[in-house]
Amino acid sequence: MDKLDENLFIRLMLHSSKGENGQKTGKATLVALFLGPVEKVMDIMNQNIPSLKLQKQECFEMSWIQSVLFWANFPSGTAPEALLSRQMASTPYLKRKSDYVREPISREGVEAIWKALMDVEEVGLTWNPYGGRMSEISETATPFPHRAGVKFKIQYSSNWKEAGDTEAEEEIALSRKLYEAMTPFVSKNPREAFLNYRDIDIGSSRTWSLEEGRVYGERYFKGNFERLVNVKTKVDPQNFFRNEQSIPTR
């Protein structure tokens, strides 16, 4: 996907569930955005991924602002003014983790991932392809380093509704189990992570020492971490602005 038309974004969502007879099944869902007419995206898909058998009736032409509503999960026909609402609908409780993939995953690897998904049941995987403009910007140009060479990013998602520790601990444990099972297929040294899916599992600071910060900092920022430490030391030497995964000072 990272090598297809730069105007095409395709998201893959994987999850497992139990049928009426209790049998576990896996499901893969694809949702895409193409900047262009239906005929063009049909040509691209039929040439590159004919096995999907994309049908024209599965494509919907819309304006850019309508696509924003679509990705925000508003019902079809919602007026753009709905975006001005400050009310946010969200799951009461959730856990998110992330990974980056730089090497192709073999068929055997995909089968192992399906097995792992069946084992955890409740946790879903969302794969977002990179490439395109993302790869054209140097990883040192901005703090965000996950650029050339990244095939896609993975989000691990687990949601629950009940307050209290019991369900939370169960859901978080399942997320960690799937994350561990994915180790052979993702980036290494460091195992890269996406800053916006804050994940305390990959490290946190209690004393805001450079050693503590480097544990998670290099996974979020790779080689840019040291430069961020230099900036932090100059503009906030007293470390007034801090959190569990903030940039430390020297």
UniProtKB/TrEMBL annotation:
Top-level lineage group: Eukaryota
The keyword Protein transport belongs to this UniProt entry's keyword annotation: no
Gene Ontology MF terms: flavin adenine dinucleotide binding; oxidoreductase activity
Residue stretches spanning the membrane: none
Keywords: FAD, Flavoprotein
Pfam (any one): BBE
Name the UniProt record assigns to this protein: Berberine/berberine-like domain-containing protein
Organism: Cucumis sativus (Cucumber)
Taxonomic lineage of the native organism: Eukaryota, Viridiplantae, Streptophyta, Embryophyta, Tracheophyta
